[in-house]
Automatic annotation (TrEMBL):
Transmembrane segments: 318-339
InterPro entries listed in its UniProt record: Double_Cache_2 (IPR004010), HAMP_dom (IPR003660), sCache_2 (IPR033480)
Subcellular localization: Cell membrane
SUPFAM superfamilies: HAMP domain-like (SSF158472)
Record-level GO cellular component terms: plasma membrane
PROSITE patterns in UniProt: HAMP
Lineage: unclassified sequences, metagenomes, ecological metagenomes
PANTHER family (UniProt xref): LYSOZYME-LIKE PROTEIN-RELATED, METHYL-ACCEPTING CHEMOTAXIS PROTEIN MCPB
Annotated protein name in UniProt: Unannotated protein
Keyword Cell division: no
Length: 442
């Protein structure tokens, strides 16, 4: 019984250990799927980001090249002044007209301001005059930045938003400004960046579609899946053929999205684990596990989700299997133990019965023949006992015979003694004399 209880306890502990180990393995599988997918998204986002940064760098370099060409023209006009071919006023007038009329690309132009941001050459009527306090649609004083850049570094780039001619909404724009010291002019030119942003958005849409299809192929822990949120908790990418609209149009979904976004990791690459209730499966509330990490070069959050029951199921299944295997082993062990014990107990019982029979003077050596036939310690014991018991029985038989014979001898001597006592008694003597007397009378 104690052995069975010990084996049962061992099986239970083993099952718990297996369950814990397998649940840990399932969590590790979830984390590995998350990390692998994050690398894929990082690479895809990097392509979009690289396109935008490289295109923007090219666009900025073009701005500088175009402006420096105009600076070269200004230098030639100044050289003509130095040679006496032009007066300074004439050279400046030619320069202003040249810069005012020059157009390139999408009707882009050059402008000239004093360091105090008073216009000298400005083809856009909206920017004629003192613009030092002008703000763009986002409230940025970009003319003040023009001034700061050229006075501190001599040249540089400034980002802001402006409204195209005929448009109603502002678009992103970048300008390159340069301080032309000989005339104390701030010369600049700028281009809109919405074409770059539009192309980047197109590429991002293509990336999202590719990621959606890729996420649909990622399988882990049964019904686990991945999706992408932005930092406000809005769904950015969902696995193809999976509806996650509940995250935005249900109370539980909005709460969950806000919770996931609110738990954004503090460092890129870090994975934060959450446990929360969700209704992804048939509207049924159940506990889910979520891993969240920030995606490099974007404001996205990668989320992996798996039902807690799925994480536990593998461990539970193996734990049950472990218990079944342990129970089977225990059963076989008990059966073997039972058979072994019966194989040992039966001869021992035969020896016990033989000992009792020996005590009660009814021992039969034949009852130990089966036990004595064994080739083990029990057989040796049975043979020794049978031999010893047989010797005891034989000695007792001989002793009984001797006692019987002795009793016969003792009884005969007693008779002779009693007869002697009778014949020697006075009564017997008188009888004998009387008999003798009677024979004489006859």
């Amino acid at each position: 019984m104690l052995l069975a209880l010990s084996a049962t306890a061992t099986a239970a502990v083993s099952a718990i250990s297996v369950r814990t180990s397998e649940t840990s393995s399932a969590r590790e599988s979830m984390a590995n799927a998350h990390k692998a997918t994050k690398l894929l998204i990082d690479r895809a986002n990097a392509d979009v980001t690289r396109y935008r940064s490289e295109t923007l760098a090219t666009r900025k370099a073009q701005l500088k090249d175009l402006l420096m060409a105009q600076v070269g023209a200004l230098d030639q006009l100044r050289a003509a002044v130095g040679r006496g071919e032009l007066t300074d006023r004439e050279a400046r007038a030619i320069a202003e007209q040249m810069l005012f009329t020059y157009r390139y690309a999408n009707n882009d132009y050059f402008f000239v301001f004093t360091p105090d941001m008073v216009s000298v050459v400005e083809p856009n009527p909206s920017f004629v005059g003192n613009m030092i306090d002008y703000q763009d649609a986002n409230g940025k004083y970009f003319f003040q930045e023009f001034r700061e850049v050229v006075l501190t570094r001599g040249d540089g780039y400034v980002d802001y938003v402006a409204t195209r001619a005929g448009a109603t909404l502002p678009s992103p724009k970048v300008s390159y400004v340069f301080l032309y010291k000989p005339w104390n002019w701030v010369i600049g030119t700028g281009v809109y960046l919405d074409d770059i942003d539009n192309e980047a958005a197109t590429r991002l849409s293509t990336t999202k579609l590719s990621l959606s299809n890729a996420l649909a192929e990622v399988k882990f822990n049964g019904e686990g899946f991945l999706f992408v949120l932005d930092q406000e908790g809005h769904v950015v990418v969902t696995p193809a053929r999976r509806d996650l609209s509940a995250l935005s149009n249900t109370d539980w979904g909005r709460r969950l999205s806000a919770s996931l976004a609110g738990g954004e990791p503090s460092t890129t690459g870090e994975i934060v684990n959450f446990s929360n209730v969700a209704q992804f499966r048939n509207g049924r509330s159940e506990q889910w596990q979520f891993d969240v990490s920030s995606v490099d070069s974007s404001k996205w959050l990668l989320v992996s989700a798996v039902p807690q029951a799925e994480l536990n199921s593998v461990g539970n299944s193996l734990a049950v299997r472990q218990i079944v295997i342990a129970a089977a082993i225990l059963l076989v062990g008990l059966l073997i133990g039972l058979l072994s014990s019966r194989r040992i107990v039966r001869p021992v019982q035969a020896l016990t019965s033989a000992a009792v029979a020996l005590e009660e003077d009814r021992f039969d050596p034949g009852t130990l023949d089966r036990a004595a036939a064994r080739n083990d310690e029990v057989g040796a014991l049975a043979r020794a006992f049978r031999r010893m018991a047989s010797e005891i029985v034989e000695r007792e038989r001989k002793l009984r015979d001797q006692v019987t014979q002795l009793r016969v001898v003792v009884d005969r001597a007693k008779v002779e003694r009693e007869v002697g006592e009778i014949t020697e008694s006075d009564f017997f003597q008188r009888l004998q004399e009387r008999a003798e007397e009677m024979r004489r009378n006859d």
